[in-house]
Structure to design on (421 residues):
């Protein structure tokens, strides 16, 4: 299964660690996950998607291998990384720059956590009236400079080789960008988008900057999480930033509020419904079972809770943290697909007949045959054909879309044990 890794990036004290706690901690209850390496700065979050079990009235039988399905909403595990150590000057080798940049290579998409309250300066020190727009521009230029400088200092020899072997621009660029987790098709895509037609040997510095920009847009889709919206100074900054940047990439968040709500939930003071603006208190409960019974709040906690309601939940509808994770996955265009053994009863490959056991998030442009390879090498080896709901046959080169997300493979031999790794 192709793992997705989202990286939280941002200056010190923006709220990255709080964010990681907010989206990973309490969700352990949601179930298991397929990832073997969970390092200290890693976590697992679960994003909700519509599960096909609901369409077919199979909610009661639905039995995911990873994550969980609650009445037709399926929670898929996503890996998260807290990338600490980015400080101004990182691309020039300041601070923990290199470790940061190494971590970045492994990420599929970024969530830039920005302290929108303006109460911390560019180094994360307490201040007042700092303009968070600086941070948004700074992070981008830090990554840009890192990539640009590496390209620029070798440009002479890159051009000579390019001319000597008569390579395509995308091939030459891929040689330079592979270390950042690029691929040939990604290079073709961003070259297409930036529309540069001149021969590579004529490119000047401005062209190289444009190339690096186009590469970064394609390689590191970024959600901007404007964090600390619970603080009074945030409002005016939020307005300005939303007017200046692409709003479809901005999410308003309060990591602290989410951590607080989840903590009270865990301690049974409230029943908090993640991703919503609502929770229950002891006095709201009518005849709860002993297990569900909530504890009464003390005055101090109650007033803090009311503040979170006023400043965050009532104003914005939720704390936004889960929205940020969902938006980052959306930017990647990943499609959830459900390989099944039997297209009529949705049982799974292998010996257990669990309904809709497997779900994979596949990248855009994945074909039916690509999926077969991802699910099991033997499916590819003994491949006959694939079909979707209603026993409709699919071509092996057909691109997978949400409309054909339930897929069964027919093979020339029985596939024994199964795996989706
Ligand atoms: N008011 C407020 N404070 C926050 C929020 N998120 C984090 N903080 C605080 O900001 C400080 C730095 O947070 P931390 O998660 O350690 O930042 P990191 O350095 O980016 O990992 C801590 O004191 C947090 O409690 C938030 O949404 N609202
Ligand atoms: Mg931290």
């Amino acid at each position: 299964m192709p793992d997705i890794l989202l990286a939280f990036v941002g200056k010190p004290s923006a709220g990255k660690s709080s964010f990681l706690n907010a989206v990973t901690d309490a969700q352990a209850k949601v179930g298991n996950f397929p990832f073997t390496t969970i390092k200290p700065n890693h976590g697992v979050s679960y994003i909700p998607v519509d599960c096909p079990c609901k369409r077919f009235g199979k909610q009661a039988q639905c039995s995911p291998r990873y994550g969980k399905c609650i009445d037709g909403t399926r929670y898929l595990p996503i890996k998260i990384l807290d990338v600490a150590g980015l400080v101004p000057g990182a691309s020039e080798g300041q601070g923990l720059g290199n470790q940061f940049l190494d971590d970045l290579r492994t990420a599929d998409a970024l969530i830039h956590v920005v302290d929108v309250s303006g109460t911390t300066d560019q180094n994360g020190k307490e201040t007042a009236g700092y303009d968070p727009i600086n941070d948004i521009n700074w992070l981008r230029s830090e990554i840009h400079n890192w990539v640009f400088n590496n390209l620029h200092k070798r440009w002479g020899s890159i051009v000579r080789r390019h001319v000597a072997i008569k390579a395509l621009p995308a091939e030459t660029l891929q040689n330079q960008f592979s270390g950042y987790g690029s691929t040939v098709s990604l290079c073709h895509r961003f070259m297409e988008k930036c529309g540069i037609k001149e021969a590579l040997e004529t490119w000047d510095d401005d062209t190289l900057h444009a190339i690096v920009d186009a590469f970064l847009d394609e390689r590191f889709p970024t959600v901007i999480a404007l964090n600390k919206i619970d603080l009074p100074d945030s409002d005016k900054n939020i307005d300005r930033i939303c007017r200046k940047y692409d709003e479809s990439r901005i999410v308003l968040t309060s990591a602290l509020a989410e951590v607080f709500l989840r903590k009270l939930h865990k301690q049974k003071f409230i029943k908090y419904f993640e991703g919503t603006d609502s929770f229950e208190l002891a006095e709201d409960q009518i005849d709860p079972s002993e297990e569900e019974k909530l504890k009464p709040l003390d005055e101090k906690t109650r007033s803090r809770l009311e503040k979170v309601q006023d400043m965050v939940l009532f104003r914005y509808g939720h704390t936004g943290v889960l929205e940020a994770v969902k938006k980052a996955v959306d930017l990647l265009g990943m499609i959830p697909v459900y390989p099944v053994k039997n297209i009529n009863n949705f049982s799974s490959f292998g010996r257990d007949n669990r309904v809709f056991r497997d779900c994979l998030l596949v990248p855009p442009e994945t074909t039916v045959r690509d999926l077969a390879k991802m699910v099991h090498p033997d499916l590819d080896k003994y491949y006959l054909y694939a079909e979707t709901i209603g026993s409709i046959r699919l071509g092996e080169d057909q691109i997978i879309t949400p409309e054909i997300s339930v897929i069964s493979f027919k093979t020339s031999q029985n596939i024994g044990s199964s795996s989706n790794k």
Q: What stands out?
A: Residues 26-30 have pLDDT under 50 and may be disordered. Residues 16-17, 84 surround magnesium ion (ligand 2) (CB under 6 Å).
